[in-house]
Amino acid sequence: MQSNHSPGPHLGIIMDGNGRWATARGLPRGRGHEAGVRAIRPVVEAAADAGVGTLTLYAFSSDNWKRPRAEVALLMGLLRRYLDEEIEALRRSGIRVTLVGRRDRLPRGMAARIARAEAETASATRLHLRIAFDYSGRDAILDAARRSDPAVDRQAFGRLVSGDGSGDVDLLIRTGGEKRLSDFLLWECAYAELRFVDRMWPDFGAGDLMAALADLATRHRRFGGLPAASVAA
Ligand code: FPP
């Protein structure tokens, strides 16, 4: 695996389908996002149990600011509640939490909450949970380009892009049936195995994660090279 940070694989998940999950039940979209937050804990625990090193969850893209003001406010409230209510359980579970993305546009007090959550879980080593919030893969690359110099190599540039050396994504999962990257971890997904799942995010569970990991184990990853048998021939 190409992660230079945690020993296990790096998984990225695009948690899509909260709105449709709610609409299908005759509920307002916000109830779908609430159910989406509830779906996170079992998947994180299953990932830690399965030896995943890093899990990056896409919770709010920089383009999500285009959504109606009330939905944006609801998502901000959910992040606040998540940081207030989940961090202690994550710390006890040996899970380190960090946020990737911009912090300067978040509501007042959020950056301090994020810093506290990161500090309180900083020494945990069982799993690194990264929450991508006000995140844009293109902006991450652009920022890294602005901070680097012409002599930079791929590895050093990749560290600038990820911000924390989390390394390449091994498996990218997207729920909700759509098949696109939506500006998520563009540099880090150069050789990611892709898995698109029709299930809406609130219905995605530990079993789905285990099935994805079993599928990953069957993929023949060549990183642009040839299968071992062809090289020997
Ligand atoms: C996509 O559903 C989901 C999001 C906008 C992000 C996922 C958000 C959560 C799981 C809740 C927030 C998480 C934290 C940690 C605070 P959608 O609204 O695009 O669904 P749709 O495609 O069915 O409309």
Spell out the blueprint of helices and strands:
Layout lengths: L9 E5 L3 H7 L4 H10 L1 H10 L4 E8 L7 H17 L1 H6 L2 E6 L9 H11 L6 E9 L1 H11 L6 H9 L8 E4 L18 E4 L9 H13 L9 H5 L1
Parallel strand pairs: 1-2, 1-5, 2-4, 3-4, 5-6
Bound molecules: farnesyl diphosphate.
The CATH fourth-level homologous superfamily: Decaprenyl diphosphate synthase-like
Can you give the mean pLDDT? 95
Percent of residues in beta strands: 15-25%
Instruction: Write down the overall geometry.
Output: globular
Q: How much helix, percentage-wise, in residues?
A: 40-55%
Specify the biggest β-sheet. 6 strands, parallel
Count of beta strands: 6
End-to-end CA span: 25 Å
Task: Give the tags.
233 residues; 10 helices; binds farnesyl diphosphate
Give structural notes.
- The protein has 233 residues and is an alpha/beta fold.
- It has one domain: 3-Layer(aba) Sandwich (Undecaprenyl pyrophosphate synthetase).
- It contains 10 helices and 6 strands, in the order βαααβααβαβααββαα.
- The chain has helices at 18-24, 29-38, 40-49, 69-85, 87-92, 110-120, 137-147, 154-162, 206-218, 228-232; strands at residues 10-14, 54-61, 95-100, 127-135, 171-174, 193-196.
- It has a 6-stranded parallel beta sheet, sandwiched between helices.
- α3 packs across α9 (206-218).
- The longest helix has 17 residues, at 69-85.
- It is globular.
- The two termini are 25 Å apart.
- The site of farnesyl diphosphate has 19 residues, from α1, α2, β2 and α4.
